[in-house]
Amino acid sequence: MSRIQLYDTTLRDGTQAEDISFQVQDKIRIAKCLDELGIDYIEGGWPGSNPKDITFFQEIQKETLSHSKIAAFGSTRRAKVTPAEDNNIQMLIEAAPDTVTIFGKTWDFHVHEALRISLEENLELINDSLIYLKERIGEVVYDAEHFFDGYKANPEYAIKTLQAAAAASVDCIVLCDTNGGTLPHEIPAIMEVVKQAVDTPLGIHAHNDSECAVANSLMAVDCGAVHVQGTMNGFGERCGNANLCSIIPSLKLKLGKECVSDESLKTLRKASRYVYELANLVPNKHQAFVGNSAFAHKGGVHVSAIQRHPETYEHIRPELVGNRTRVLVSDLSGRSNILAKAEECGIELDSKDPVTLEILEEIKELENKGFQFEGAEASFELLMLKAMGKLKHFFTVSAFRVIDTLRDSDKAPVSEATVKVKVGGKVEHTAADGNGPVNALDKALRKALISFYPQLGDVKLLDYKVRVLPSSEGTESVTRVLVESGDQDGRWGTVGVSSNIIDASYHALADALTYKLYKDNL
Question: Which residues of 409-444 are buried (b: 16+ CB within 10 A; e: fewer)?
Fold first, then answer.
């Protein structure tokens, strides 16, 4: 089984994406995560472009990586100066990376319009920049920028630029689809010509502007590329780069190419979410292989089938990439969904038990009113337990009130909530201020309950989403609130629906606290 080199450029190309910026320590953490995943090369940045990248190369040398090589990125020398006189070239060497990757112009249009030099002079600066670096750095990779566009415009010249790089004895020549406009069917014929022209190992670097970056990368490997560049979660400028979270399992599980170990592959989802977390972005739930919905099943026919044979509606076993099968519960659900969900929650239900049908009918009725359990699995579990008579009654809220008061016209209103709860015959009446009415209600509810249940102090409100559901009643429309809560052991979602946003929020918050108490009493 041939091994493919994985080259991650999340820390450079990925940071060029809109809304993404990593601090130096974030980049160090991501590099260590990628090393654990088994990535061969981690491109840390462009030392000549900004102080942050210079600092990264200084700090990463203090770390011990078990597998990955650190690569520094830059460009060929500037025209009219030698490599020894070019500041960017010198900073690449001073960064002391394991590998240096530089790009050069392949497209004659760019040579004329961007560099404003002759085609022959461009070949010289590619060749002598690479020779200079190869004499000083152990491993040098050449990125042929805009290769596919350049080849389509002037194939003879594009090939000459690759030959100029090959003549410098570089370790790999990477064919770049920089504008992301190439389609998979174009790759084989072009790569066949390239393989006839140079003997250097080839790589692929694809952008996703035509939604083909992963497909183009896999096609290139099928045509002989041994080096694949990409980013975690496809982060990158414009529409992003080739997504390594899709490329890695496709290489290993579909094409039979060795790239990471079986154990490392099982950490793929965890690594994907870690990078999202440090980027301060919400993970794409529909992302292939690693997304929450990648192996989620909603239709009753699908659920019934995967219970017998998972391969009926799953292209791989999700555990191979650290994911899992999820059964969604909705008004499309059949009895098989309810049984599968109960089993997932550790609840024993009999398919012939009338309670199963009762739960099914209640779900459909509730969803007709606006409830949604796909993001509120804790509320669904509580619903099942109540129907079976297995849920302990932890507390009763007999009254609550929330007041917003505008005390100063140029300041935000002040929110205050009062709550009266009853636990085991004892009544607690408390009040709390908050940053908005929902936060005030949440604080007051916890304050009232915490003397009875100290463990509620561990619960944090992690996410709060409101959706106004379509209605002919205008301002009387129904509101759905989804709440995500968590403690040191996990996260759970709950839902509340009402024509009153505070009431909907209360039901979601009450379910969240009830689920915590149920979970701790198992």
Answer: eeeeebbbbbbbbebeeeebebebebeebbbbbbbb
